[in-house]
Specification:
Low-confidence stretches: 1-5
Strand order of the largest sheet: 3-2-1-4
CATH class of the domain at 41-100 and 109-116: Alpha Beta
Shape: globular
Distance between the termini: 15 Å
Largest sheet: 4 strands, parallel
Structural class: alpha/beta
Number of helices: 4
Length: 116
Amino acid sequence: MLGATDSDEVDFGRTATDYRNFRAGFPDEFFQRLGNQIGLRAGQKALDLGTGTGTVARGLARRGMQVVGIDPAARLLHEAAALDRLAGVEVTYREGRAEKLPFADNMFDLVVAGQC
């Protein structure tokens, strides 16, 4: 945003509970199509940028992928982890920004960003 400062940033964490309760996420067909198009396989490593409440990360984890979700809003990550427990999947969440990733090059087989 032109002229924005750090204090002008939107804090999506303030609405984390609303995101958890009302954001629909992605249907199974999305993941099926993605899998067919690029050959998703169990055991592959995926990075979900701007993961929010983890809708994409969780869908990939359900398919056996090792997933890391990154988001600047800690409260969204907390909600994501709670939803993962309900879904019976495990995703590693890290607070951070896509513009400054704390990962080595070529660490992931897939990098995604949905609705962020």
